[in-house]
Amino acid sequence: MSRTELQHLLLHASKKDTTAYMQAHPHHFQDALEMALSDRQPLAWRAASLVKDCMKPNDPRVSQHLNRIVKLLPTKSDSQLRELLLILQKMSITEELEGPLFDLCLQAWQAVDKRPSIRYTALKTVLTLVRKYPELSSEISFLTEDHYLETLSPAIRRGVQKSVGQLHRPPNT
Questions:
Q1: How far apart are CA 16 and CA 21, in angstroms?
Q2: Is the peptide bond before 42 cis (omega within 30 degrees of 0)?
Q3: Higher-scoring residue by pLDDT: 151, 55
Q4: Helix, strand, or coil here: 54?
Q5: CB 88 within 8 A of CB 128
Q6: Within a 10 A sphere around the Cβ of 46, how many other Cβ atoms?
Q7: Residues 122 and 109: beta-carbon distance below 8 Å
Q8: CA distances from 27 to 4, 32, 61 (A)
Q9: Which member of 17, 45, 98, 124 lies 3.0 to 4.6 Å from 79 by CB, making a disulfide possible if both were Cys?
Q10: What is the pLDDT of residue 31?
């Protein structure tokens, strides 16, 4: 299948079918990743979703692109941003990239006009980094202020409050 045919599949086939195809043809993974980083919508976010579903944790095929992914995040559409963050959540991020990723995710969480799924995905990345650097936990308690939670469903709101609250407790409590 050519790159053009992969594009057609991403745009017209079901997620189940595209995932099955990619698993049967892993040599097209890099093409899908390149599409995921492009600006061609809706192809880009669908390709990012496919990459996320077909990659392994700390996948070496993605590792070589981490710098580029983090650098491109601020330029991506909301759906593509969410999928790229989910890809990054499966990867070990270098210290060099953690700062820019933290800042970007904090901005996405604070953008209350963004869809809740994007904001929640960004917050999960922030919380992962705060667990790695506990000294940051005292600086993020403001993230559960009412105006950040108003646009979330009650279930997500409780999950956010619980996750942020757990950062302030000692382990195993």
A1: 9
A2: yes
A3: 55
A4: helix
A5: no
A6: 24
A7: yes
A8: 15, 10, 11
A9: 45
A10: 94
Residue 15 is inside which H or E element, if any?
helix 15-24
> What value does the CA radius of gyration of the chain take, rounded to a whole number of Å?
17
- Which stretches of 25-77 are DSSP H helices? 29-36, 43-54, 60-63, 66-72
Q: Which residue has the tokens 């809706």?
A: 42
Amino acid symbol at 124: K
Q: Which amino acid is at 88?
A: L
Alpha helices in 55-115 (DSSP H): 60-63, 66-72, 78-89, 95-110
Q: Are 118 and 153 in contact (CB under 8 A)?
A: no
Q: CA torsion, points 107, 108, 112, 116, in degrees to nearest 10? A: -160
Under 8 Å between Cβ of 54 and 21: no
Contact indicator for 159, 117 with CB cutoff of 8 Å: no
> What is the SS3 assignment for 173?
coil
CA distance 90 to 168: 25
pLDDT, one tens digit per residue, over 26-60 is 999 999 999 999 999 999 999 999 999 999 999 99
Provide the residue type at 111 as one letter.
A
